[in-house]
Structures are given as structure tokens and as C-alpha cells.
């Protein structure tokens, strides 16, 4: 079974880079362009992993993460914050709302793939 990965980001270049890095042939990729859409897709599709930007329209990534982790139907979903916010306080807030990991932009495609393998398959 192919793992579902939700990319929640409002920046088309980031979405395109993630699509190219992850590969549509390896993962079933879903895309959300704002926080409301991310919540709706995650609740409907139950992805295995979400790459979640913090600074998004409508609902920010912190609130999306908190809502998904608080709901028993979606609490199992692994969430990696993928953001330009690099302050330790942002990392701490992400941890506090339930994020499983945190990567900052710009990111290394190799590092991203290793993170996906580690999260979904237990190996790097």
C-alpha cells in the first residue's frame, strides 16, 4: 500500500519541490493551499504524514497541527512542520501543539527524503 503524504503549503515553488523530491510514483501526494483545506483533506484522507507550513492563509499551521492531534480520528497522523520560521520559540510551540518533527526552509531534498523514510519506515 502506498503511503499518503499531505503537503500543506501556500507557496507553489515549495509544493512543486516537495512533489519532485517525494515522487508521485513512491507516495500518494495530496496538496492543501491553506489551513482550512489542510484540515479538511487530513480528516477525509487520513494521510500517513503531513508536511505543514506554519504561515498559511485562513488557519495557521500551529492551529492545524493542534486540531489534528486533538482529534482521536487524526491524532495518529505524523506531522512535520516545514517552515521558514527558525526561532527556537517556534520549534517549541510546534512541539507543544503536537508536531512530530520540524524542518526549516530552505531544506535539503536528501534530508527531507531521509526524514520521510525514518518516519514512515523506521529507517534513514
SSE layout and pairing:
Layout: E1 4-8, H1 12-22, E2 28-32, H2 35-45, E3 49-52, H3 61-70, E4 78-83, H4 88-96, E5 101-104, H5 109-121
Parallel strand pairs: 1-2, 1-3, 3-4, 4-5
Task: Describe the structure in your own words.
With 124 residues, this protein is an alpha/beta fold. 44% of the residues lie in helices and 19% in strands. The chain has a single domain (4-121), classed as Rossmann fold. The longest helix is centred in the C-terminal third of the chain and has 13 residues, at 109-121. Helix 2 packs parallel to helix 3.
Q: Supply the helix-strand structural class.
A: alpha/beta
The coarse silhouette is globular
Number of domains: 1
- What is the architecture at the second tier of CATH? 3-Layer(aba) Sandwich
- Helix amount: 40-55%
CATH superfamily: Response regulator
What strand line-up does the widest sheet have?
2-1-3-4-5
Radius of gyration: 13 Å
Let me know the largest β-sheet.
5 strands, parallel
Could you give the order of the helices and strands? EHEHEHEHEH
Individual helix count: 5
- Runs in which pLDDT lies below 50 for 5 or more consecutive residues are none
- What's the N-to-C terminus distance? 20 Å
Count of distinct strands: 5
Mean pLDDT over the residues? 95
Name of the CATH first level: Alpha Beta
Beta strand %: 15-25%
Amino acid at each position: 500500500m502506498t503511503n499518503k503524504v499531505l503537503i500543506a503549503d501556500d507557496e507553489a515553488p515549495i509544493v512543486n519541490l516537495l512533489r519532485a523530491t517525494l515522487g508521485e510514483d513512491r507516495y500518494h501526494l495530496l496538496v492543501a493551499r491553506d489551513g482550512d483545506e489542510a484540515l479538511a483533506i487530513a480528516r477525509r484522507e487520513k494521510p500517513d504524514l503531513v508536511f505543514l507550513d506554519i504561515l498559511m492563509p485562513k488557519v495557521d499551521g500551529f492551529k492545524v497541527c493542534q486540531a489534528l492531534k486533538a482529534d482521536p480520528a487524526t491524532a495518529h497522523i505524523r506531522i512535520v512542520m516545514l517552515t521558514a520560521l527558525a526561532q527556537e520559540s517556534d520549534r517549541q510551540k510546534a512541539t507543544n501543539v503536537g508536531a512530530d518533527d520540524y524542518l526549516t526552509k530552505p531544506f535539503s531534498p536528501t534530508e527531507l527524503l531521509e526524514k520521510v523514510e525514518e518516519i514512515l519506515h523506521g529507517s534513514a
